TrEMBL record:
Its cofactor is Zn(2+). GO terms for cellular component: cytosol. One of its GO terms (molecular function) is zinc ion binding. GO terms for biological process: carbohydrate metabolic process. This is Class II aldolase. Zn(2+) 1 binds at H85, H180, H207. Binds 2 Zn(2+) ions per subunit. One is catalytic and the other provides a structural contribution.
Length: 280
């Protein structure tokens, strides 16, 4: 199976009554491990790369890696390639040109009116290509850069109606006590999440999945949650495979064998996450 369209994956999730796991990639081995894990989970999902990580590789390289892995693994579950925390209109255009099938534009650091303007522009463009757009309202804490910009603040439920009406975006990333990275403890504000869900006309996205107890994700499913992002957990699994081997033996330089082990560990972690967040 080839990559599928983001709207189709959203329909699939609704039809099956599941929440879609979404995993951040950076390089080939992470990509292969994520695709393998999604296939082994028997459930569809997202693979994504953030604008920041595109500094390492062009959108076309990412598309080619994902497509190669899907073909090599005979994938038969629906998978979408998503731009995560899209930083600019140029990145959005480059990703669509390369073959991404879903887009996030993150203008949440801007004042509300400017966030709306930016998202509206991207949504109009993406919808022309029938590609869904995720936007962020409020600011998700956790990362030092974000905190240095003083951009932490929960989503204001009173802004949701206007934001969605004016931007026409298709998924909404919320800040409800979820945090990026592993340095800070998440503390989900379920009341706020419910309040947002009650006024939102689109499904919600939870960023910062790493560190959120599976019980909390399952509880959040009742609030029209469609997608949960996982980055740090997989990176830790990946890097620790190499770290542990090196600690054990400073002459452990067998990159091929260690990469295979890392792919296995990543794919197992993907299965665990997909199963746990969807447990009844
Ligand atoms: O956009 C990416 C995610 O929100 C990843 O967050 O590294 O805390 O899992 P995480
Ligand atoms: Zn995020």
């Amino acid at each position: 199976m080839n990559l599928i369209n983001g709207f189709k994956l959203m329909e699939y999730a609704k039809g099956k009554g599941i929440v879609l796991p979404c995993f951040n990639t950076t390089n080939y081995e992470l990509t292969y491990g994520i695709i393998k894990g999604l296939q082994n989970s028997g459930r569809g999902g997202y693979i994504q790369i953030s604008s920041n990580n595109l500094e390492l590789s062009s959108p076309q390289i990412i598309v080619d890696m994902v497509r190669f892995a899907m073909k090599d693994l005979n994938v038969d579950v629906p998978i979408v390639l998503h731009l995560d925390h899209g930083k600019s209109f140029d990145d959005v255009k480059a990703c669509i040109d390369a073959g991404f099938t879903s887009i996030m534009i993150d203008a949440s650091h801007l004042p509300l009116e400017e966030n709306i303007e930016e998202v509206k522009k991207v949504t109009e463009y993406c919808h022309y290509f029938n590609i869904p757009v995720e936007a962020e309202l409020g600011a998700i804490g956790g990362k030092e850069e974000a905190e240095a910009l003083n951009k932490e603040g929960k989503t204001n439920s009173e802004d949701v109606g206007l934001f969605l009406e004016q931007t026409n975006c298709d998924l909404l990333a919320v800040s409800v006590g979820n945090v990026h990275g592993l340095a800070k403890e998440p503390n989900i504000d379920f009341e706020l999440l419910k309040e947002i869900a009650s006024v939102s006309t689109v499904p919600l996205v939870l960023h910062g999945g790493s560190g959120i107890p599976f019980d909390d994700v399952r509880k959040a499913r009742g609030s029209n949650l469609i997608k949960v992002n996982y980055g740090s957990d997989l990176r830790k699994v990946f890097i620790s495979t190499f770290g542990k081997a090196y600690e054990k033996n400073h002459n452990a330089f067998d990159v091929k064998s260690l990469s295979k082990l890392a792919i296995k560990a990543v794919s197992e972690s993907v299965v665990t996450i997909s199963n746990n967040i969807n447990q009844k």
